[in-house]
Amino acid sequence: xxxxxxxxxxxxxxxxxxxxxxxxxxxxxxxxxxxxxxxxxxxxxxxxxxxxxxxxxxxxxxxxxxxxxxxxxxxxxxxxxxxxxxxxxxxxxxxxxxxxxxxxxxxxxxxxxxxxxxxxxxxxxxxxxxxxxxxxxxxxxxxxxxxxxxxxxxxxxxxxxxxxxxxxxxxxxxxxxxxxxxxxxxxxxxxxxxxxxxxxxxxxxxxxxxxxxxxxxxxxxxxxxxxxxxxxxxxxxxxxx
Length: 241
Ligand SMILES: [Zn+2]
Description:
Layout: H1 4-8, H2 13-28, E1 37-41, E2 48-52, E3 65-69, H3 87-95, E4 101-105, H4 111-115, E5 135-137, H5 139-143, H6 153-163, E6 168-171, E7 175-180, H7 183-206, H8 214-225, H9 228-240
Parallel strand pairs: 5-6
Antiparallel strand pairs: 1-2, 1-4, 2-3, 4-7, 6-7
Helix pairs in contact: 2-7, 2-9, 3-6, 7-9
The site of zinc ion (ZN) has 6 residues, from loops.
């Protein structure tokens, strides 16, 4: 029988605590519901990542966090069910060495932008991380007729290729995947990508939006990255109440 420490293969308790809290925040902020997941690259081994077993994000505890390799196999097979779309995480960590945390969600506000190829652009400073836009992925282009889910490494490789150097990829008829350099950044980006979608839709109804240009977006993103803890600490308290 493996011990609790084996599950996490040496990751420290504070990181596990942030991963659990990130799951709860994403649920509380309505970015995920029963579905969706958050992972973090292992701090001591870049070829591993940490993520919950197959559970609704709002129910995740430290005891549910497991270590996976980048082929998305559990390092210690606990004989439990794992997320069917876990390959998203492993293939993005392979393709993007700079990525330290990944969120996959089905946030409803993002769906129209992925399904119309309108895409997201930064409508205000809080979503400067969108830069000059987002990536788009249509599973039918590479996998033909499917149930739309990223159920195997091949589909996940195509998704990671579509993400390219962007911070978010919208997935037609499905959802979105967001990347960041830490749990707090990827949670922030997931919340504000969703907020941006709501505001962008409002702006399109009024007229032609004047988006932030690339330089403005970059300056805003740098500024916001200095205040991630301010948002995190509020969302944490709300998720605990
Ligand atoms: Zn999904």
